[in-house]
Amino acid sequence: MTAIGRLGRGVAILGFALLLSAATSSGAGAAAPAQRGPAEHVEARIADLHKKLHITTDQEPQFKAFADVMRDNAHSMEELFHQRAQNRDRTATGQLHWYAQLTTAHADGLNKLLPAFDALYQSLSDKQKKAADAAFVPLRQGRPAHRHG
Fold this sequence. Notes:
Elements: H1 3-14, H2 16-23, H3 38-53, H4 60-86, H5 92-123, H6 126-135, H7 137-140
Helix pairs in contact: 1-5, 2-3, 2-4, 3-4, 4-5
């Protein structure tokens, strides 16, 4: 498989809503249902995060705002993937244009999510913040730092 093919396949697998919601999942201990759509996946992750953070009644408005942005982002990404399925251009330029469109949508979604998450995070107790920090550890995992020499 070509690098562009791998890139396109990897991007398709990582869709924004699933990427973000995976960052809030519990990891290896979580059981995954057979075929769950993006909306169901995001709803499960929202419920999981609500439980892990022990959201209080006073924190519900901030959590709801955060969850609503997650839902909106998931819907936007689902529409984008639907559009992609209708577009049969699998040329190198077509793949790169798709990747640019997807990464732009990803960045836009994160920029919408950040204010809602910041407000929620500020409302959390220290114990809840530690739980949030742990829930987002997968976002810190990536490729190793580049070493010179």
